[in-house]
Specification:
Layout (H helix, E strand, L loop, with lengths): L1 E3 L5 H12 L4 E5 L13 E5 L5 H8 L4 E4 L9 H14 L4 E5 L15 H11 L4 E5 L12 H5 L19
Parallel strand pairs: 1-2, 1-4, 2-3, 4-5, 5-6
Bound molecules: NADP nicotinamide-adenine-dinucleotide phosphate.
């Protein structure tokens, strides 16, 4: 059983779809189960849980072998706090492996090979957890440009998301 956190979002939704078509056993986590979309016929265990509520994470992780960990900036908590809450629960519940969706750092950090500051504490906690782990550090997704849609419709210039900075190197 693989727990997918962020399963209603851009990335988690696609991870869910790809694993479902491969026939993986999946548990999808969301605060609002009604928002969840998955392929017809897919057998998916849905769990209502919130990184802010430790007891809900216990139910989410119970009986799970692996976790896809996606923590997003939002109105509540920090990415680091949410990463730590899930990692601690995973250890306590005997999860074998956690795959953390991180992000590559920008050149402003003068360190192309580091994760973005937002994800550093979570990556470090996972590496020190004793669990089997992987971290993924993507660069900017093309879907970010959807945020330009209103400006384009209005005939306005589109914002340059990186200011004078360069896009981080893609690592293959
Ligand atoms: N966009 C990029 O170019 C890029 C590049 C590299 C890395 N990243 C990383 O990608 C991540 C964002 O992924 P995304 O774009 O897929 O996010 P998204 O579409 O905004 O989705 C956020 C997900 O997080 C869940 N969530 C938010 N707060 C939660 C909470 N308190 N408890 C439980 N679940 C919660 C939401 O679930 P519910 O609302 O259903 O509960 C939703 O499924 C960030 O960590 C970012 O650093 C992005």
């Amino acid at each position: 059983m693989i727990l997918i956190t962020g399963a209603t979002g851009t990335i988690g939704g696609e991870v869910l779809r790809l694993l479902a078509v491969r026939g993986a056993r999946i548990r999808a986590m969301t605060r609002e189960p009604a928002r969840l979309r998955f392929p017809d016929g897919a057998l998916i265990d849905v769990v209502q849980a919130d990184f802010e509520r430790a007891e809900s994470l216990h139910s989410a992780v119970a009986g799970v072998d692996s976790v896809f960990l996606l923590t997003a900036p939002g109105t509540t908590g920090s990415v680091a706090e949410h990463d730590l809450a899930l990692i601690q629960t995973a250890r306590a519940q005997g999860v074998r492996k956690v795959v953390k969706l991180s992000a590559i750092g920008g050149k402003a950090d003068h360190a192309d090979d580091l994760p973005s500051p937002r994800h550093r504490a979570g990556e470090q906690a996972l590496a020190a957890s004793g669990l089997t782990w992987s971290t993924l550090r993507p660069s900017s997704f093309a879907s970010n440009t959807l945020s330009w849609a209103d400006a384009i419709r209005a005939g306005d210039p589109v914002p340059n998301m990186t200011g004078t900075g360069a896009r981080p190197r893609d690592n293959g």
